[in-house]
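for the writeup, i need someone to sanity check this before i put it in the appendix. the sequnce is what the collaborator sent (i think, or maybe the updated version? ugh). structure was predicted straight from it, no edits. if anything looks off just tell me and ill rerun, i have time this weekend
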Amino acid sequence: MKPAARKKLKNKISHKVHDVFLKERNRVMNYKQVASRLHEKDNTVKLLIVEALKELTSRGTLKEVERGRFRLADVTSTGIEGSIDISRRGQVFFCSVDLEEDVRVKSKSSIHVLKGDRVLAKIKKQGKHESAVVYELLQRDDRFFAGIIEISKAFAFLMADDPFMPVDIFIPEDKLAGAIDGQKVAVRITDWPETADSPFGEVVHVIGEAGVPDTEILSILYEFGLPTEFPQHVSDAASRIPLELSAKDLKGRKDLRPISTFTIDPEDAKDFDDAISVERLRNGSWRIGVHIADVTHYVPKGSVIEKEASLRATSIYLADRVVPMLPEILSNVLCSLRPNEDKLSFSVIFEMDKDGHVKDSWIGRTIIHSDHRFTYEDAQAIIEGGEGPFKEELMLLHSISQTLREKRFANGAFNFHSDEIRFRFDEDGRPVEVYKKTLKAANYLVEEFMLLANQTVARYVGRKSPRPPFIYRNHDSPDIERLMDLSRFVRSFGHRFDPVNRDSRDEMKQLLVDIQGSPEELIIQQMVIRSMAKADYGSKNIGHYGLAFEDYSHFTSPIRRFPDMIAHRNIWAFLNNRPGESDSDISTLARHSSLQERKAVDAERASRKFMQALFLQGSVGKSFSGRISGLTNFGIFVILDDNYCEGMVSLRSMDDDHYAFRSEDHVVAGTRHKEEYRLGDAVKVRIANVDPLSRQIDFYLL
């Protein structure tokens, strides 16, 4: 585009951007939201929108509330309801759907607030900045805090594990519940008077001796506000569900019990969500069924079990255990598609040729009978040439799954699979081995058919007119500013990446091809991942960028994901020409499920860090080789080659020079000798310190 034409278009865009904010005076928006309101999808125009936002801000027309988020400069909001969030640096923020952007809470406030509290706040202007003043606490977040209790003669204090808890919790002598000094306990806050520096609390559970694996894992669950056990009334309700199928249970279901059916799962799995059936048809095609546990048959909407599942929203896979979303009688027995048992399922059945072309599909409730239970290792051995049951069916599914996988990547999907870190434990629950779980063809076989089923369900909803509210698994396209940052970063390695004038997906895939086998492959791949948005749940379908699907939902794991239960419930309503749930209800459940998913991921990561520290506790002073896995302004993270444990080298400990992190180049460099450290570099370290309680491993660079 010629400079004159670009300038003219830029001025036009600037006026349109201003109009968008004038029409929605109380909204905080990023460039994507502005582009959506202008119905602009062209990347060149999106870049002009970014420039317009910055120019309007420099003129004082808009205010950049936070990086990339803008609002009209003359708007002051009052009396807004929202919640409190706290950063790892201790900064307190006010969050509200009315603002769409977090606002820093003014430090001088008479009301004590904690992460998760519901509050009323006013937004105040202070020069170019805005702050929130909390003037009413609506509801204290009803959660527990775990930590070590220190007991004096007449009172005690809890030192919380939670890094977001800024103060210790005062516990009166009569609220100790038998706790002993130095134990790990869970505490509930009962009051926080305005004149008190610390909140008052009571011990609700004595977890155990600090440092013991079981104690620390339970503490992690408390720290992240996650459940440790089922309420008694939920367990009682689950125990009352009949174990035997009745004629009523089978009514209206397609009977698929005679068809060859099997499951493929991890060796230690008990909750078998999915099974696959294979049947040869007379016309030469194959009928392949993806059968999913029919959880909503046993867990109707509004039941106590359903309410508890909606609160949990997900099963939690910690280093040494699973915290299930459903009581064990449901997850491991009634709903689990165990071999040699008749089971109720919700199925997506495909008529396919051997090349993976879908000729027809059907969705509905069924009854199945799994003939065999494969572990991934069993199935992989057959795929690699071994003998075993259902070999013909497995080889057919393997062939089709490989074709589906190739097509998916050809259509623009990304392949960012990483190996999973696992532990082996002794009888006391202490880790004795750390190893990698590598994905192979058998894993991809199951993955491709689950992806196909999830996509087919979402497409079924998408074909309905008008399209009803539904729960989708969304993955938004990358932010243009992040892509521009990525472009500048890869340019320093001599690579080209142009997300403005070319399709960003094609450019990104070509970049990943160009870096294969290069020394910078790891660092650029990690930066590509960081440039992408995070997947989440929503009631509006925006597609899945990473999978290159226009329609995508989660349907295939209702034993461990509540969004899948929502999908089952609504699909069944649509199949019976009934309305599903409202957009408002689904949106609320989607937001909560996304939040719980993030909590679960954080807890899973914390449990791995604890176990890694426990594993290396006896290795202080020993030297290991490793590779740089992360760089920050305070240290270099290193993953050890032998055991995959990760620790940090503090920049302060690197005394041969003064080292600093250059974020624009993503490198740690010495100011005098100019030695540089980058992601993926091989290094040697000595273990300087290990603290399992804080989940920290400190290295010294050799």
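The chain is about 30% helix and 30% strand. The first strand starts at residue 62 and ends at 66.
thx in advance!!
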